[in-house]
Amino acid sequence: MITLSTRWESVRGSAIRDLLTLTARPDVLSLAGGLPGTDLLPRERIAEAAAVALAEPTSVQYGETAGLAGLRDVLAAHESQRCGRPIPSDRVVVTSGSQQALDLLARVLLDPGDVVVVEDPAYVGALQVFQAAGAALHPLPLDGDGMRVDVLAERLAVGLRPRLVHTVSSFHNPRGVTMAAPRRRELAALADRYGFLVVEDDPYGLLAFDGAPAVPVAAYGDRVVRLGSASKILAPALRVGWLTGPAQVCAAVERLKQCADLCTSSLTQSITTELLCDTAWFDAHLHRVRAATAARARTFTSAVAELLPQVTCSTPTGGMFCWLDFPEGTDTTALLPRALEHGVGFVPGSAFAVDAPLPTAARCCFASLPDADVREAVQRLADAVVA
Ligand SMILES: Cc1ncc(COP(=O)(O)O)c(C=O)c1O
Fold first, then answer.
1. pLDDT at 387
2. Going by DSSP bridges, is the β-strand pair 146-147/136-143 parallel, antiparallel, or unpaired?
3. Which end of the chain is more exposed for a tag (fewer CB within 10 A), N or C?
4. Is the pTM of this model over 0.70?
């Protein structure tokens, strides 16, 4: 018998990562994982960038814990432009995916029992990290304009005192919604007034179908830690993410990253730098990804309207996810095995639930499959519903 830590015991397994094994079967069209379309990942350009990077001997060496100077510079410029104010390079910490940024942040900021406000439904990877840190989760509802910041304000007024408020501000995972600008401003103001930190987890912001990303919450205040990622705009296998925020937070995260993995891969950081610095290529690439993903979203929503008329489907304006609501009495967790038998995967709403169980909901990722397979996937889902 081996005794594991009590902190570990409180981490719920990710139903989504478990599902990936089932949906990887060749006979299954997967709407389950939050995977960017493999056909849209720029492998040839990455190979060229890798060749350039490898010409430099340091590309295969250990690097600085906070990230390669060239990458921190380009990310600082990019974040400064998004936030409309200068963000110096020393306020950027490169991490091994933004998932690592979340984990390091939770570990430097939270003591067991600290309150963390999360959106309900929530990004499962964030829930896991906060559970591992021993946090007390406080769920907040979302609507079509994102987090109900008004509900947060009411609860703060009557004594709620969170250490952190986590939000996926743009193209929410799993709901697909984007926080409206007045709510962003209000959230930043509440952070100042009550002394908590906002974690603005934003891997999808640049995937706005109209090409106009929302102004970040971090543009409205200083008590915001912003997380970004190369995963959805370049490729997940680079495992390059980043964090910008107050100097004290950056320094603490950097020190803890020394314990976690010393540094993120110098090779993939060099590749990422090369790709982001080639602005003509990067802009054209983003345009192509956005256009292809928007087309997939249209195919998905019109197939749902036609083949599953009883289901309510969100209207995506960017990102990768559609949120489906089946009629009262449906249990999407029970539907999933039938769907897999019919050759399609999705994630039941219950996987993202913090408080409300969400039995009738499902998250579908429209971005992963080529357009031609998207309709077939919905057809299979419709067949599973009537089976
Ligand atoms: C909201 C959100 N944050 C963070 C991540 C982690 O992404 P990565 O570690 O690949 O940067 C994901 C991945 O799907 C996500 O959806």
1. 80
2. antiparallel
3. N
4. yes
